[in-house]
Structure formats: C-alpha cells, structure tokens
Amino acid sequence: MSLDLPFDNSYARLPERFYTKMAPAPVAAPALVALNRELAERLGLDADALTSEEGVAALAGNAVPGGADPLAQVYAGHQFGGWSPQLGDGRAILLGEVVAPDGARFDVQLKGSGRTPYSRMGDGRAWLGPVMREYIVSEAMHALGVPTTRALAAVTTGEVVVREMPLPGAVLTRVAASHIRVGTFQYFASKDDKEALEALVAHAIARHAPGAKGALGLLQAVIARQASLVARWMGLGFIHGVMNTDNMTISGETIDYGPCAFMDAYHPLRVFSSIDQHGRYAFARQPNIAMWNLAQLATALMPVMGDDMDASRETAQEAIDRFPEQFQAAWLSVFRAKIGLESEEDGDAALIQALLERMSEGGSDFTNTFRALGSDAARDEFANRDAFEAWEAEWRERMAREGATPEDRVAAMRTVNPSLIPRTHRIEAAIEAGVDGDYAPFERLSEALATPFAEPGDFADLTRPPTEDEIVPQTFCGT
Ligand code: AMP
Ligand code: MG
Q1: Residue 5 pLDDT > 70, yes or no?
Q2: Which residues of 378-403 are buried (b: 16+ CB within 10 A; e: fewer)?
Q3: What letter would DSSP give residue 478?
Q4: Which site in 119, 213, 290, 357 is 20 to 30 Å from 282, CA atoms measured?
C-alpha cells in the first residue's frame, strides 16, 4: 500500500526548462525524528498515515507518494553580491503542491534528498544538525507570527554524511506557499527567455498576488511583502545571514534557515555567519540588502513590463524607490507596538532609536529587554541604568498620552514582545543531544517555542541568555 496525498502540481505543468523531473534518491534506513501534527492537519493530511512505515518512507524519499510529480527546480542568484548563473535545487526535490481543505496551496519539498543536476560539487544531502535547526527556527518563526516556510517532518536516513566529520544524515520536509525566488526570475531573464518570464509572472500572480496587474503589479506586491517581512525580522532581533537573491521568496515568506540567528545581546551590526566576512548581511543592513535584491527582481522583470524598455526602467525604478518609505512605515508600526504605542506621533521613531542606542551601548538582551519594559526588571537589562531611566521617564510621558491604561498597554506589549525565541545556544545543545539519539531537548524546545508570547512558566530557563561559556559566536551554512 502506498501513501496518497491531495496533490495538484501547477509548477510541474510549467514548461520543461523550469525544472528537471526526477524522484528523490532512496536512503538506507529511514527513521522519524519529528512529525508536525498541527501542520499536517492544516494541510488536510493524515498524520497517522505519515507516521506509518509508508509515510516515513515517503518523508525520506524512499517512496514517491501517489499524486506527486517530483522535480528539482532551476534558479540563479546573486550570492554575496556575486552573480551565479545557475543554481537550483541541489539537495531538494519538490514532491508537489498540496491543496489544503481551505483551498490554500502549499509546496511540499524534501530537503536533503540526494543529488540533482543542480548539485554542483555538493552531495545532495543534509545532516541532522541543519535539519533540526530549520525545524526549530522555522516553526518558531511561524509561532511568532512571521511569514515563513514550515517544517512538516524530519527523518534520519541511517546514512552518514561527511562534513568536517562523519555525521548522521537527515531529510526535512519543508512546506511553503511556493519556492519561487527572486533568483527564479533572474535565471530566465539572464537567458533572455521572455516567454518563460511571462509564464512565471502569470504563475506567481496566480499563486501570490491575485489581482496584480502584470509584472509591475507583481513587483509592487513583492516589494510590499518584503518590506513588511524584514521589518518583522528586525522587531525580533532576527538575522537571516544569507540574504542572497536565491534565498528571497516571491511569496514573502522567510526561507533558508542556514546561518541565521536571533540576537541575544543587541548590536546593530551583529553578524553570525562564518562566511559573511564583510558583514554584508549584518542585522541593520538587512533592509538595504532587501532593497538591493528587489532591484535585481525589478531588473529581471523589466523585459516583460512592456514594449518600451525606457518606460519600463522608469516604472521599475519608481517602485524600488518606494521601498525605504514602505519599510520605514512597517518598521515603525512593529516598534511602536513593541513599546506599547497605539497612536502615532512625530517623535516616535526618535524615541525608539534612543532606546535601541541605549540597548546597544551595554549589549542588552534584545528579547528580554522588550519583554521587561514597563516592569522594574527592565533596568536590570542595562549596563547604564541611569541612561535607561532617563529614557524610561520620556517613554512614560509619551505613554501618558495614549488612551489605554498602563496595565492594558503592557498587556498589549506582551502579545508582540515574546518571552521565548530560539536562542542559538539552545539550538546547538538540542542538536548535540540529537546527534547522540536524545531528542528530548529538541522536543522541549519545540514545545516551548510553540507559544512564545505566553508567560514561560516551566520554560523559564529557556528565556536566559547564554552564559560566557554557552555563547555561540558564529553560525555555519546549513548544508
Ligand atoms: P544555500 O546556501 O542553502 O542557499 O544553497 C546555495 C546553493 O547550493 C543551492 O543551489 C543549493 O541547492 C546548493 N547546495 C547547498 N548544499 C548542497 C549540498 N549538500 N548538495 C548539493 N547542493 C547543495
Ligand atoms: Mg538557498
């Protein structure tokens, strides 16, 4: 008996040059690490069937479920600013698109599923660490209310993957509104393939921007979504780490949790990724990089915006030029809520900046500082308490001009300032235990992060920043 899933594969119906149709490569001994029952239900899938032997075989790539039309997608991209004319799913296979009971369409992709024509020098595989990290962080992002790809399942393969040392192999089942990237458009633009660009625009509009008018309408929709997305990252102290154009979605979902991290001690120029030597993707540079990536999307779309190239260039430029104000508006709305403001005053941005400056001076914990605002505990987050108290007095004056009571304001702040984020040292500890076959820390962390705005209760230890010995100074690309 094989597993059937409710697939309807619209990407597989695009022209053949969009992908290579191929099945995932089987693995030696699939074993389930985690199945996301809540997400399975959201998709209308039978969680028990997925945990059965047939289900686990499908999640490992050993059996192709009925209705799937597996393929590896081709794309290109700018990586750290340098052009790569051909990338693509080098270690992933799109099984197909599941249409959920409410009509929403989701890509179901296996990541770590073996070599494809786009693997270049890679082995097409993933090891357990990055699979666990992506599972934890993408699900935490979802619980934090940020658009993101999600994790349906993680399995180990019973095979060894060689990185700096031999490590247990694993496969993640990733679920996304789609896997169409800025780099997907760049690939066809670089080949002067207008017909493919037009087909991709129509496909992307149908999936992500119904009602958008043509390539310009699509571009404007993506710009608006990315402005909002990056503002939300900034509001959580999240550093993506590899904002290459192949890692920026058209759907506006966060994708590719490689060397990402949530900051503990706040500094605007914080970088984690070991390969980001010049800090291109530092925390505070993320809005500028998003705009740079969107300009690449605009350039790719220009040939299909109309017959007059000069006019297209001008409209595309106008759309890009609006990004800073769109980002600023989104950023202000995120941070106003974080400090409890509902009304808008001209001085708000300066007030927020003044707090962030004080936080950066002594390396205040980003998450715990915002969570503590309004209580006596807040000043303990600052090396220079006097500087904070001066700010706090100003803030209380500003708060007094809000309609609601201070208690109501603080309660509202706690719905946007989480108590729990996936701290890097906790993720690393969960991975270390997982490699030894102990998934208890992974499961506990996942459970805690499912309700990040609740009072932490039994999970209070997970709100603690790393001690000197626990600090993870760098993160590595998850391959
Ligand atoms: P990423 O850094 O995850 O965005 O990946 C960049 C490119 O490298 C993509 O085309 C990936 O498919 C490819 N890639 C990353 N890791 C591997 C691997 N282990 N085997 C094959 N291709 C890979
Ligand atoms: Mg990628």
Answers
A1: yes
A2: bbebbeeeebbeebbeebeebbeebe
A3: -
A4: 119
